[in-house]
Amino acid sequence: MVTSDSFRGIEDTTSSDGERWLHTCAYGDGSAGSGNTEKWIQAGHLQHMNYVARQLIRPS
User: Fold this and answer.
1) Sign of dihedral through CA atoms 46, 11, 3, 28?
2) How deeply is 51 buried, as exposed, middle or buried, from its count of CB atoms within 10 A (0-12, 13-18, 19+)?
3) CA nearest 26: which of 9, 11, 42?
4) Phi, psi (rounded to 5 degrees) for 33
5) How far is CA 6 from CA 2, 3, 35, 38, 59, in A?
6) Number of alpha carbons in the 13 Å side-chain half-sphere of residue 33
7) Separation between Cα atoms, residue 41 and residue 37, nearest integer Å
8) Which tens digit of pLDDT belongs to each residue from 32-55?
9) Is 0.90 topped by the overall pTM?
10) What string of H, E and C letters represents the secondary structure of 1-60?
């Protein structure tokens, strides 16, 4: 998932907590295990809402 071209990454300050969590989970830098369903849904929602907010404030 994090190696996909569609993953927005964590290289800048606009990355969401969801993107950072997905990245640390993928590379084993986070806590043991990969969380539960609730955590994956939370990370996904954070990632998508952050993306929407960035699109709304982007100048035309």
Assistant:
1) negative
2) middle
3) 9
4) 85, 175
5) 8, 8, 22, 23, 22
6) 5
7) 6
8) 777 788 988 888 888 888 888 888
9) no
10) CCCCCCCCCCCCCCCCHHHHHHHHHHCCCCCCCCCCHHHHHHHHHHHHHHHHHHHHHCCC
Query: In the block, which residue shows the tokens 């993107």?
Result: 19
End-to-end Cα separation, the chain, in angstroms: 29
Structure tokens given for 36: 């539960």
| Two structure tokens written together for 2 | 């994090």
Q: Which token pair is 53?
A: 């907010």
